[in-house]
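Example record used in the benchmark description.
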Amino acid sequence: MASYTIRVGGRESTGTMDDMPDMSLLDFIQLSGTLAVDDATTLRDIVVHIERDFGLLNPHLQGVTLVFGHELHEFYGRMFPDMHGDHLTVVDDCGALRWWVPQGEWDLVTFANLVESHEAGLIGDPTEIRVHKTAQWGNGIPPMNWPQFLDVLGHISDVLGLGILIAKGISVLKTRASSWHDRRARPEDVFCFMVGRASWDRVELAKRLAIPADDAKVLLNLFGYTYDRKTQLYVRDENGRTARVRNEVKDAFERYED
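Model output (structure tokens):
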């Protein structure tokens, strides 16, 4: 079983960002120290240790957010915190994504899960934890749901004339939407996770999304990835016709939130 040392700290926010002005309001709690953990240590254990070892008289760290590594990381040109309030997205023991895991389930998230989540690009470095008072993210508009997203794809199909390609994608999405919804995944979550990476092995994507590899291939084709025989990976196409589907979906999410 692997052992790790977590560096726990807090520091002032440095600078602001145009699309995340609230970053200037982050109030980092000044902490400094380390915690010893292993693969089986749960996120709940880590919270308890931070409360106890650093003298935070704050049961379950209410009103604060743990941030792994850097404060924000990028998904397809947009910046997101590693944790929104007391929720985060990690992989489970099978490597599939568990979206928006609430604090009440942190006893099911092991440090091994956090390490693999970091390797999958979901969170920053879990051996570096910062603590800040929770800021409010978003504009209060409920996110686009799965039926709305499927309607958007249907409209894009009418506009771009890529009926067969998009119909295959819609079929897969309809089949998988229920299980993703049960895992708390929203359409934008799945989309941003996929297109945030320049290249994919379809088997790895299938593992993360808990779907068959053939379905992963359909979704990669839908969102503008083409197979590269040299690397044996699906590479994001920036200029082809299917890249227009990806860009139209991105624009649709942005218009929905405005």
